Amino acid sequence: MMFRRPFTDGLAALLMMAGCCLTAAAAPPATIRRLPPEGLDPAVLAAQLDDADRQAWEEVPARLELLRQRLAGLTFADEKARAEIEVFLKAVDHAIAGNEWWQPKDLERASWALDMAAERLGQIEAGTASWRTQTGLLPLGFRSQLDGTVQPYGLWIPEGLDITRPVPLWIWLHGRGDKETDLAFLHGRAHKLPEFQPVDAIVLLPFGRYCNGWKGPGMVDVFEAIAAAGTVWPIDPDRIVLAGFSMGGAGAWNIGARRTDRFCAVHGGAGFVDTRRYLGIDPATVPAYEALLWSTTDVPPVARNLLNLPAIAYSGELDRQRAASEIMVETLAAEGRELPHVIGAGMPHKYDTASKQRIGEFLARATAAGRPRLPSTVTMTTTTLADSRLHWVEAIGMAEHFRAARIDASRQTTPRGGEVTVTTSNITALTLHDMPPGVVVTIDGSELPEARDRGTSITLAREGLVAEGTWRRIAPEDLPPLRKRPGLTGPIDDAFNAPFIVVGPTGAGLHPTVDAFVTQEMAHFRNRWHDLFRGELPVVPAEDVTESMIREKHLVLFGDPQSNPLIARVLTGLPLAWNQTAVAVGSGPQPVATGAAASHVPVMIHPNPLAPPTPHDPGRYVVLNSGITFREDDDVSNARQTPKLPDWALVDIKTAPDGKQPGRITAAGCCDALWRIGAP
């Protein structure tokens, strides 16, 4: 099966571009809705331009290469400015590589982007960067820690904003736009006003790495963009609003419910919040592990977190996506909270002026109030230790992963120091931060001895880290380092939410059939990361991998123990046996799943034995033979872009990969809380 391959040599692509249509391998036949859509012949589109615009388009290849050379030759006092220039060049390069030309104005945008880059380069060469002090619409970029690529974002800065003090930030998450790739997004950030325009706050418009429902790397992009915005204007961390509509509304509910303490208010318009109900899927028709993993992106299981801050929903009266807001109203009503739900009379999938004004006033009041620094009560629910902390409460152990876990905590000051009362469900360990000395903790009805811990954090755990164990006060060093914990939770897709590198095979492996599968899947991941997540896969040859890389980044390894020396190094530390004859998965004396080595390949996420966890550092992951696990067929709806494989799977490669899976999945499952597979 063939997947399109992006141009990795920009100059070669440029030389091919002028006057001809870029070619690309066909998308998988099973794909229902390709992202991005197939582009048109730029020569045909250029014929529709006037003479001046056509000439500007024809100069794009040479100008892009010249601007690259100028940028490479400059020394920057502040590397952030380099990213704010490079982002325009990257946008054009991605458009060329993916043939992202759908109408004549796309060609004009390429010329515009190079004009923007040239203008900023000229400023740097003159010793200034005045664009960083302008108001109004401002397209920008930052360098992502995930893969080292530049990613776009935008700001809207009202005239006369007082920057002598930190200012509020309103975040607006965009809806789905199949053709809203880097180039169109940046152009929009320079020409299109945001949905809300508060007079006393900056509006941040993240890219979200294009069109993935603001999940995974899309969620990471939001927080990286917040950090980048803070380098341009001073941001008040206690007055950050999160809002969005359609796909952006889904993102606002999901991110707002999972990172609640980062915001002072959340607003979701339309969107989707529940995979089963939105898509009309019977869970019995998908693998049990896939339905279980819906909990990592669905909002209702974690909606209780929204009890901690103001939230407001919107729907058009006639909008088919009104159900999302109604589900949120229903879910919070069951928790005793009345969620304001503004309904635009007679409106389809859009806002009306009166509703937008009412929502803006609600968010302005919440902005003025700000978020509490140290609330006396915290209501927390999570389904994964990837979303582990809310204010001063942090979950660090769960009995059953990917199922709802709950902590309700309250604190009060007493003459002796303080009292904290905690109730839990599905929690086996937790940390209470910012505690006064001498605090008394009562957890699930048991009063624990007075705290004598050094520092301001108290760690509590159930005996044996099991649901029925007795609570006791411990030191973090008393917990087993190798366990599911914040930063080390699975499933496979979690590895791509933090810095990672990819290492491919160095030679022939155990079987030619496996070599072919590995080559194909690594190429598929490279193209997928380029097209859907708008980056370049950080591939490092095995001989260039340093010990610092192993300590600092997740390792994503393609190959087998013979073809990839790093797989050979980690294999003894994994619950996996793999030789010329067979593949066997399991931690105990009897494997959980086996297959012939010539026709089966394991995919897996596990703590990296070369970067083992310590009491205070979760270590890093190693991933075998997998990238993001949702594939092209799931791009038909952002609600379907959810993890499709758990912590491990065995793939029968006699079945060809398609838009749904890499081959036939013969067995798959989750590791237990100690990263074991099957009985120890």
Task: List key phrases describing it.
alpha/beta, 680 residues, disordered N terminus, eight-stranded mixed sheet, Rossmann fold, 16 helices, globular, 22% strand, 4 domains
Number of helices: 16
Number of spatially distinct domains: 4
Sheet with the most strands? Answer: 8 strands, mixed
Shape: globular
Helical fraction: 25-40%
CATH superfamily of the largest domain: Alpha/Beta hydrolase fold, catalytic domain
- In the sheet with the most strands, the strands line up as 1-2-4-3-5-6-7-8
Q: Remind me, CATH topology of the largest domain?
A: Rossmann fold
Total strands: the figure is 27
The value of Rg in angstroms is: 26 Å
Say what oligomer this is.
Answer: single chain
> Strand portion, in percent?
15-25%
Query: Helix/strand/pairing class, anyone?
Result: alpha/beta
* Distance separating the two termini: 39 Å
What is the CATH domain class of the largest domain? Alpha Beta
What is the correct CATH architecture of the largest domain? 3-Layer(aba) Sandwich
Low-confidence stretches: 1-31
Q: What value does the average pLDDT take?
A: 93
